[in-house]
Design a protein that fits this description.
Layout: H1 2-9, E1 51-52, E2 55-69, E3 72-84, E4 89-97, H2 100-112, E5 116-117, E6 129-133, E7 136-142, E8 149-150, H3 153-162, E9 167-173, H4 177-189, H5 194-200, H6 204-210
Parallel strand pairs: 8-9
Antiparallel strand pairs: 1-2, 2-3, 3-4, 4-5, 6-7, 7-9
Helix pairs in contact: 3-4
């Protein structure tokens, strides 16, 4: 024992180094959503609004469902995605998959295949419109420039993708995100400008006189 002390305390010997403690994973590494309800997308995540092929993609809602099988529970996910170019084109799609990323990808592809044109009047809508889908009811009213978007997050996601910057809205009835989004989409697809209405009625000559 005396020799061992002399060796370790000699000036030429390397100092003893304590072994490094094993790294512990933080609480963030655990899945805290296990056994909970549907997941909502992070509105601060820039990936939700990254332009792809000139289109902005936003995840409105992510739902998780489980199926009880012989070996236990089997989980699947569904994602409601809205896609738009912010210049009058918008589409809504629902995707399902075994993983969240797979569901979002399918939802985005379905939304891109259903793009439709929306009639706008500058930064707002040309007239008031009301629409219902299931138990959801949505009312949209035009607003003066600089008003901004006075609406809920689900309605906002849809009309922002179209390119509307000033609007007043009211969501009535059901708060189901899918129904509210579909009611909003149905509402803006019924919008018509003055020129379109006059042309439909065969009154182009009157429109030319007014202009």
């Amino acid at each position: 024992m005396a020799d061992e002390k002399d060796i370790t305390s000699s000036p030429g010997a390397a100092p003893a180094v304590a072994p490094a403690a094993p790294e512990r994973s933080g609480r963030g590494d655990r899945d805290h959503n296990r056994g909970r309800g549907p997941r909502r997308p992070n509105r601060n995540d820039p990936r939700d609004d990254e332009p792809k092929d000139g289109l902005s993609e936003k995840v409105i809602f992510i739902n998780r469902s489980s199926k009880v099988v012989k070996g236990g529970r089997r989980f699947s996910f569904s994602a409601l995605v809205v896609v738009g170019d912010k210049q009058g084109r918008v589409g809504l799609g629902l995707g399902k998959g075994g993983e969240v990323s797979e569901a979002i990808k399918k939802g985005g592809e379905n939304a891109k295949s259903r793009l439709a044109n929306v009639s706008l009047s500058g930064s707002t809508i040309p007239h008031e419109v009301y629409s219902e889908y299931g138990g959801a009811k949505v009312l949209l009213r035009p607003a003066s420039q600089g008003t901004g978007l006075i609406c809920g997050k689900t309605v906002r996601a849809v009309i922002e993708s179209v390119g509307i910057r000033d609007v007043l809205s009211k969501s009535l009835g059901s708060k189901n995100a899918a129904n509210v989004a579909k009611a909003t989409l149905a509402a803006i697809l019924t919008l018509r400008t003055r020129e379109q209405i006059m042309k439909t009625r065969g009154l182009e000559h009157r429109l030319a006189k007014v202009n």
